[in-house]
Design brief:
The complex is a heterodimer.
Chain A lengths: L1 H19 L23 H13 L7 H12 L3 E3 L1 H6 L1 H7 L8 H31 L3 H25 L22 H18 L14 H14 L3 H10 L27 E5 L28 H4 L8 E3 L8 E3 L5 E3 L3 H4 E2 L6 E2 L8 E2 L2 H4 L2 E2 L20 E5 H14 L3 H15 L10 H15 L6 H8 L2 H13 L15 H6 L12
Antiparallel strand pairs in A: 1-3, 2-10, 4-5, 6-9, 7-8
Helix pairs in contact in A: 2-6, 2-7, 3-5, 6-7, 7-8, 7-9, 8-9, 9-10, 10-14, 14-15, 14-16, 15-16
Chain B lengths: L1 H16 L5 E8 L9 E4 L5 E3 L5 E5 L6 E5 L6 E4 L8 E3 L9 E4 L2 E4 L7 E5 H4 L7 H5 L6 E4 L2 E4 L11 E4 L2 E2 L11 E7 L2 H4 L10 E6 L5 E15 L9 H14 L6 H4 L10 H5 L3 E13 L3 E12 L6 E18 L2 E16 L5 H12 L20 H4 L6 H6 L1 E21 L2 E20 L3 E2 L3 E2 L3 E24 L2 E25 L14 E25 L3 E11 L9 E12 L4 H4 L4 E15 L17 E4 L4 E4 L14 E14 L4 E19 L11 E23 L2 E19 L5 E3 L2 E3 L7 E4 L2 E4 L3 H18 L5 H5 L13 E3 L15 E4 L5 E11 L2 E11 L2 E4 L2 H4 L46 E3 L2 E12 L2 H6 L4 E14 L18 E2 L7 E10 L1
Parallel strand pairs in B: 1-7, 13-16, 46-50
Antiparallel strand pairs in B: 1-4, 2-3, 2-5, 5-6, 8-9, 10-15, 11-12, 13-14, 15-16, 17-18, 17-51, 18-19, 19-20, 20-21, 21-22, 22-23, 23-26, 24-25, 26-27, 27-28, 28-29, 29-30, 30-31, 31-34, 32-33, 34-35, 35-36, 36-37, 37-44, 38-39, 39-40, 40-43, 41-42, 44-45, 45-48, 46-47, 48-49, 49-51
Classes of the chains: A mainly alpha, B mainly beta.
Chain lengths: 519, 1017
């Protein structure tokens, strides 16, 4: 018995020791769910996924559809909040009142999302460079790198224009530059964007096959480079860039297809320079809104804007009645004139008075007495009776060729080539059937015509606030409007820049001076 | 019956066998003079003995006059009395009141309570009372000092980390056990290890304290059967007061008109003045609960067993709760195969089926808000709508709220889960004093959550698609531990050594989710037949641990005790260079009552001083934070014509390559005392815990482009505290009673914080020199009663500004306001703390409240009189504030929708200024009355009656007639009374460490009353 016990004990001890004397390799685990940067982005396909991720930054909370254009429409008084949105959309209504501050989540969100785009572009640029160093050129890698430069250039031009001196981050590894200070001069920020657009011009193709439509083209880089020069008042350089687009790749849509600049059909057409791509898909939570789609399973890229801007059950923004008069002016004979874009831009009054024109159920008379003014542009009410649950996929045109033509007009007028400028204005007016300017105009007169043309052509497209700021006429233009609406002049010269978000100030001890809780 | 028969036979036997020998008689009584039946009286060194009769009398024959009699009885001090020629020996036995010789569980072993050197709170069976609560935290709440239980979350000795501060559970020796497998009714005792000398043996997972749960097992003896069953109701202890239809209409008119919003015809009509629904009454119901448990236990010389079966049907009062059925099973077996080998198994399982709509996120969470905000003139149902419920019309009602009943009743959850733990051990004793124990086990779970959602329309016409979602999750966590213990006494020296290791590998958990939507025919809801279906989730995680540990216990002369622990742990959560860490501890104790100079005082029955120091760790952070992860989920872009999704990949979050363990260093000094024949016991302890290298997300510049913060080991925090536990047990004739109270004070302070920059999480600010997550905001100072007060404030602001800025132009000055351009009469006036004339974010926010309770207390009292027993338990906290996270939408007057009744006291006009605190109603909040301020805080102090029960045990005569050994009936209630000034649902609110004390409309813990029966055979 004793021997058995002994044998058993030794046997058990051996088993136990062999079970428990385990080496440290049990601690070497692998992440079973996610890739990591050490092992990813090493092939052209993976690098292209990286740039797709940079494009996806356009879907982040505060970028294009959700907040960004609403904010611009508020700042330019191009909409009127519905009663419900006055209470529910206070963070946008603040902009309408010019009462936003550095705590605004719209401002801080936009800042964050632009820098997220920059980070993602930097990742692609670094990984592309590494790939090329190791494997030599590859067309897909070159193109992806070009797209990354384009997106980074776009982001930095937004930052430069809206915030001025901002931190510059142009490499993926920022470990030596974590608390980056703001640039000493805004020109340093513009210089990054300029260089990026130039590199993008070289690397990007002029056109894509059908499967890749929507990616940035060399033409898009050229247009944004021209716009950058224009915003910096370098009119000759700007004109030189815009002229390059007169290459047969771009044209204005015919007047009867004007709606295709905002609709779901005929997207990425000849008038389109760069579009944010959205696609309708049925299902819950398919709108690219209400929180980032990232890290969310099965999200969608549905467009919310048409729902919010029309008389749907969930409607936030009506057409601003004050804007109606902008479409009424005198023709060259001094007679009253209604611009044809009124009927294309809004419903009611001098606007469109039927809807569902392109639906088998229509056309129907528009009930102006009950509804008042609503946007027509950018909504789908000519084809759909209701649109209640982000039921569309309209691409959002970030820049269209009409803008290029009018920016070219601006370059000409401001460099005293007034007649050439008027010609460009007329090119845009001719397309829509508005009378053409034939008289001789002074530079000031021509510039005023240009201002009106831009306002009418781009109403509701988020352009006007930017134009007023760069022309330096924000206070004089908007204060009469805030006075009429709220009984106060609320616009001051600080509003030429956005406030530096409190979130950045609180998280970046090296940021540098910010004066007066603003910029 | 059997007992008396046994005594009779025994007496007969002994009197026959030993008739000619000397006979000793006597009576054994307790402290109060009552005779004690069932006391074993044995002649020392022999097996000859007897048991006292019902009156405590005994007669023992054949006793030599030099012999010694040993009197023993469970729960009493054993006494040895020399016969010394006497024939009559009467003995008074005293209770071991606090169980000094009770053995308590510590990590990898047990120790006599009197020999404890660390700080261990022990809650034994009798402290639990009638267990009508259904979870372990509720069993603990209020019963141990230093243990903060709020809303199901346990924090031991303060908040030791910014991260996970959940304690480690060790269930019957199984490290990292899952408490959901345990039927609370099967728990025999709970030990809470509080100081580092007790927790260091669990190394990397001990920093948050350790809770050791020991379940019941069989005892030597005949089969014993316990049956307990109860049934009763649960209901909400509190609802919110809302405006009625008339008040609501007045409110909406104020709210909209003040914002310049034209009223709709509907709001001006009389149809909206009719009270249709009190939505709070819709939110809650009275629910039925019941539970039945049956245990079988017993044992022989070489084995014991316990089988426990339980069934519980619980239902909460929230309308989305359609009940949870839980089935528990437990089997414990121990076998002594030979003197040198023991084996055993311990199996627990819980299967649950829950049909509960969790109102925790998304639309479901918003429905809680809607139970406040819905217009009172709406009925719940509307037959005209295909989905059966009413829905507001945004254009006519001018409110944006969704019918919460539609959301909740359209939800059909059906969740099944199985949790189990299997554990077995082999213990061999090759030499005397040497024990080798190997224990291995696995804990696992499988859960399947299915939820069908009907088509419905809410939110003023927003339709939803019908959907079937299915999520499955599983976990498997094996562990193998081996340790060797050697104990030996050398004269006055007594030593015990322990060393072992622990391996956890191949532990997996994961989850999968699928969803089907847009069903055209809803007869069959299989996701495969859905028109659209997709994968929503697929995740799989691995984990492992490797640990070595050891302990030395040394005792000299039963007076001086020393414990030294050591553990070395490796965790895969860190990069290879930061993977290993060491966790030592040491503790000393001095049993002063064994010293003559204390004995001479005649005051103390026990007096022990103890002190300890040690380190433990925390690695409860996400996996692979040291790698820079590539994000792909939800990242894509629709290029092409036709548009097609192209997968994207990028980096979203900062990586943290250099992170390492958090370590908590803690020191503890305590004294345990008992007086008055052990009837009065008193324990006092002070502790100082310092956590270093706290892993936390340092806010990195937003302009880096990452989401989330970078995790670094950058913060330190201390928790200092005092704990007192006091108990008294007494008896007056048939009336016996006991009172136990405990009190803890904890001071928490953040001592360093990365680069020093404070960080803000909504309303909570964490900053050096203050407790974690202190509330931060503006100080409200009444309201502006009229325009001249507003003008005066603005003029004063301009004067101060121009004094500080002599160069300011008139145009600049015109833009200076005390608060803002929009501030009007009826708006909140905030304090300008730095006296610069204006109220601004940068300078006028301050620490306005404390989220961590400073004082915790518990009191339990038991009384018994003859066959009646009465038990009441109170628990409370003080020194904490609660932040109303939904203030802006439910009581601020800025939301266009119904509000809590506090808005009745609002400013309406100069002549009707309200209570001077509640501002005017105005949609959109242009003047930012809702900036985070003292208006959103209230004291969260409370005292709750956690349990109240009254029982009656059937008299012995009756139960013996029924062949029972015990029978008791009782009525019991939980959570019946709350004393608090807080006017929300419940001042006991949960929350993570960095955002604690947020009232997110968590429904109050239900009140319960039940009627129950306990029977033992």
């Amino acid at each position: 018995m004793k021997r058995i016990k002994k044998a058993f004990i030794y046997g058990l001890l051996t088993v136990v020791v062999s079970l428990t004397s385990c080496n440290e390799s049990v601690l070497d685990l692998k992440d079973l769910n996610q890739f990591n940067t050490a092992t990813y982005f090493n092939t052209p396909e993976e690098i292209q996924q990286g740039v797709n991720g940079a494009y996806h930054a356009l879907f982040l909370n505060s970028m294009l559809q959700w907040r960004y254009y609403e904010m611009y429409d508020a700042l330019a008084n191009e909409f009127e909040p519905t009663p419900a949105s006055l209470s529910n959309e206070a963070n946008i209504v603040q902009f309408w009142h010019y009462e936003y501050n550095n705590g605004s989540n719209v401002i801080s969100g936009l800042w964050q999302d632009l820098y997220a785009m920059i980070l993602r572009a930097n990742l692609v640029i670094e990984k592309s460079t590494n790939y090329i160093e190791k494997n030599g050129d590859d067309p897909l890698v070159d193109q992806s790198m070009g797209e990354a430069y384009f997106l980074r250039g776009w982001a930095y031009s937004q930052l430069a224009f809206h915030w001025g001196r901002v931190p510059i981050r142009i490499t993926y590894d920022q470990s030596d530059n974590i608390d980056a200070p703001r640039a000493d001069n805004v020109s340093e920020v513009w210089a990054v964007a300029e260089s990026d657009f130039k590199l993008a011009q070289q690397l990007l193709p002029a056109t894509y096959d059908a499967a890749n439509l929507g990616r940035a083209t060399s033409g898009a880089a050229t247009a944004f480079l021209g716009k950058l020069y224009l915003y910096n008042k370098e009119y000759d350089k700007a004109d030189l860039e815009f002229a390059k687009l007169d290459n047969g790749n771009y044209a204005l849509l015919p007047g009867n297809r004007w709606d295709d600049n905002f609709g779901e059909v005929n997207e990425n057409n000849e008038e389109s320079i760069f579009e944010w791509q959205l696609n309708f898909e049925a299902g819950d939570n398919k709108g690219a809104v209400w929180g980032s789609t990232e890290k969310r399973p099965n999200p969608g890229t549905n467009m919310l804007r048409p729902q919010l801007y029309s008389w749907n059950l969930w409607a936030n923004w009506k057409f601003q009645p004050r804007r109606v008069a902008d479409f009424q002016y005198k023709d060259e004979t001094g007679a009253d004139y209604v611009d044809p874009r009124a009927a294309l831009t809004f419903y009611g009054g001098i606007g469109d008075n039927t809807w569902l024109d392109e639906s088998p159920d229509g056309p129907r008379p528009y009930d102006f007495a009950t509804n008042g003014y609503w946007y027509r542009k950018g909504t789908n009410r000519e084809i759909k009776e209701t649109e209640n649950n982000t039921e569309s996929g309209n691409n959002l045109r970030v820049m269209r060729y009409a803008d290029v033509i009018l920016m070219r007009a601006e370059c000409k007028i401001l460099t005293t080539k007034v007649a050439e400028g008027i010609d460009f204005i007329n090119e845009v007016r001719r397309r829509i059937g508005a009378f053409e300017y034939t008289k001789g105009y002074s530079q000031d007169e021509a510039f005023n015509l240009l201002k009106r043309e831009r306002q009418l052509e781009f109403m509701g497209e988020g352009m006007r606030y930017n134009d007023l700021v760069r022309w330096g006429i924000l206070e004089e233009t908007m204060n009469p409007e805030t006075m009429a609406l709220f009984g106060k002049n609320t616009v001051t010269n600080k509003h030429y820049l956005f406030p530096i978000p409190l979130t950045e100030i609180d998280s970046n001890p090296g940021f540098g001076d910010v004066s007066g809780d603003w910029n | 019956m059997k007992k008396y028969l046994l005594i009779f036979l025994f007496t007969l036997f002994i009197s026959v066998m030993m008739a000619q020998s000397k006979q000793v008689t006597g009576i054994v009584t307790d402290d109060y003079g009552s005779g004690l039946p069932g006391v074993t009286v044995v002649l020392k060194g022999t097996t000859e003995g007897i048991i006292t009769d019902t009156n405590g009398n005994y007669t023992l024959s054949g006793v030599s006059s030099e012999g010694t009699l040993v009197f023993s009885f469970i729960g009493m001090k054993t006494q040895e009395i020399p016969v010394s020629g006497r024939t009559n020996i009467n003995v008074t036995m005293s209770e071991e009141l606090i169980g000094l010789d009770e053995v308590v569980a510590v990590g990898y072993g047990t120790v006599k309570k009197s020999d404890l050197t660390g700080s261990v709170a022990s809650i034994s069976e009798k402290d639990f009372g009638d267990r009508i609560v259904s979870d372990v935290p509720s069993l603990i709440q209020g019963k141990a000092s230093g243990v903060d239980v709020s809303n199901g979350k346990i924090r031991i000795r303060g908040t030791t980390s910014f991260n996970n501060t959940d304690p480690l559970y060790v269930i019957d020796g199984f490290v990292g056990g899952d408490i959901s497998v345990i039927n609370p009714n099967n728990i025999a005792s709970i030990e809470i290890l509080k100081d580092a000398s007790s927790t260091a043996i669990y190394g990397s997972r001990g920093a948050n304290g350790v809770i050791l749960i020991t379940t019941k097992k069989g005892k030597k003896g005949d089969l014993k059967i316990n049956i307990s069953t109860f049934a009763g109701i649960s209901f909400t202890p509190n609802k919110l007061d809302l405006l009625n239809a008339k008040q609501y209409n007045e409110y909406m008119k104020d709210n909209l008109t003040n914002a310049g919003i034209p009223l709709s015809d509907k709001l001006l009509s009389s149809e909206v003045l009719k009270d249709e629904t009190n939505w709070q009454d819709v939110a809650f119901k009275t629910a039925w609960n019941s539970e039945t448990n049956i245990d079988f236990s017993g044992g022989t010389e070489n084995s014991d067993f316990f089988v426990g079966l339980g069934y519980r049907k619980s239902e909460g009062p929230a309308i989305g709760d359609q009940g949870t059925k839980s089935y528990f099973a437990k089997l414990v077996n121990n076998f002594t195969l030979a003197k040198w080998i023991k084996i055993g198994t311990n199996i627990s399982a819980n299967y649950s089926v829950a049909k509960v709509v969790n109102l925790t996120s998304g639309e479901d969470y918003k429905s809680k808000l809607a139970f406040i905000q819905m217009p009172p003139y709406y009925p719940v149902y509307d037959k005209n709508n295909s989905w059966g419920f009413s829905d507001v019309n945004r254009a006519e009602d001018l409110t944006d709220v969704s019918n919460p009943a539609a959301i909740i009743f359209s939800n059909h959850p059906d969740n099944h889960s199985l949790n189990y733990q299997f554990n077995s051990y082999i213990e061999i004793t090759p030499l005397e004093g040497l024990v080798l124990r190997t224990q291995g086990g696995i804990t696992g779970n499988f859960a399947q959550d299915r939820r069908w959602r009907d088509y419905f329309v809410v939110g003023g016409g927003v339709p939803t698609t019908n959907s079937m979602t299915e999520n499955s999750s599983y976990g498997l966590s094996p562990i193998l531990e081996t340790y060797l213990t050697y104990s030996k006494d050398f004269g006055k020296h007594s030593i015990s050594l322990m060393a072992g290791n622990s391996i956890q590998k191949d532990a997996y958990r994961g989850s999968m989710g699928i969803e089907g939507i847009n069903y055209i025919n809803t007869d069959v809801k299989n996701i495969f037949v859905a028109p659209n279906s997709f994968i929503t989730n697929d995740a799989r995680y691995q984990s492992s641990y490797l640990s070595y540990f050891g302990r030395v216990n040394y005792q000299y002369n039963d007076k001086y005790l020393l414990t030294v622990n050591f553990r070395r742990d490796g965790s895969p959560k860190f990069s290879p260079k930061h993977r290993w860490a060491d966790f030592p501890s040491v503790a000393l104790a001095w049993k002063l009552h064994q010293e003559d100079f204390i004995k001479e005082l005649g005051i103390f029955d026990q007096l022990k001083l103890r002190g300890s120091w040690g380190m433990s760790g925390n690695d409860a952070i996400g996996d692979f934070r040291y790698l820079s992860q590539v994000a792909t989920m939800g990242i894509f872009y629709p290029f092409g014509d036709p548009q097609t999704y192209y997968q994207g990949a990028t980096v979203r979050e900062n990586n943290s390559p250099d992170i390492k363990w958090e370590t908590t260093e803690s020191a503890n000094i305590g004294a345990d005392m008992t007086f008055l024949d052990n009837r009065l016991n008193f324990t006092v302890e002070v502790f100082n815990k310092k956590t270093n290298d706290i892993l936390f997300g340092v806010p990195r510049p937003v302009s880096l482009g990452y989401f989330g913060n970078a995790v670094v080991n950058a913060a330190s925090m201390v928790n200092k505290g005092l704990e007192v536990q006091l108990g008294y047990r007494g008896k007056l004739n048939d009336f016996s009673y006991s009172i136990n109270g405990n009190y803890s004070y904890v001071h928490n302070e953040v001592t360093s914080l990365g680069l020093g920059q404070p960080f803000l999480s909504v309303a909570s600010r964490t900053i050096e020199g203050y407790p974690i997550a202190h509330f931060y905001g503006f100080t409200a100072d009444g309201i502006f009663k009229n325009q001249s007060e507003v003008d005066a404030a603005n003029n004063a602001a301009r004067e101060t500004y121009s004094a500080n800025h002599p160069d300011a132009t008139d145009a600049q000055l015109a833009n200076i306001y005390y608060q803002s351009l929009a501030t009007s009469p009826g708006d909140v006036k905030f304090r300008d703390l730095n006296n610069d004339g204006i109220v601004d974010n940068a300078n006028d926010r301050t620490m306005i409240g404390n989220s961590v309770p400073k004082h915790l207390f518990g009191l339990s009292t038991s009384l018994s009189y003859k066959n009646f027993d009465f038990n009441v338990i109170f628990q409370g906290i003080a020194g904490a504030d609660v932040y109303n996270a939904n203030y802006a939408t439910t009581r601020a007057g800025t939301f266009s929708g119904n509000q809590e009744a506090v808005v009745l006291d609002r400013w309406r006009s100069e002549s009707e200024p309200g209570n001077g605190i509640v501002p005017r109603a105005i949609a959109g909040d242009p003047a930012q009355n809702n900036r985070i301020s003292t208006l959103m805080l209230q004291s969260g102090d409370y005292l709750k009656m956690r349990q109240l029960s009254i029982g009656y045990s059937l008299p012995d005569k009756l139960i013996s007639k029924l062949s029972l050994s015990q029978a008791r009936i009782y009525v019991s209630g939980s959570n019946l009374l709350t004393f608090s000034k807080y006017d929300g649902y419940d001042p006991e609110v949960g929350g993570d460490n960095l955002m604690r004390g947020y009232d997110r409309l968590d429904y109050p813990e239900p009140s319960k009353t039940v009627f129950g029966i306990q029977i033992s055979f």
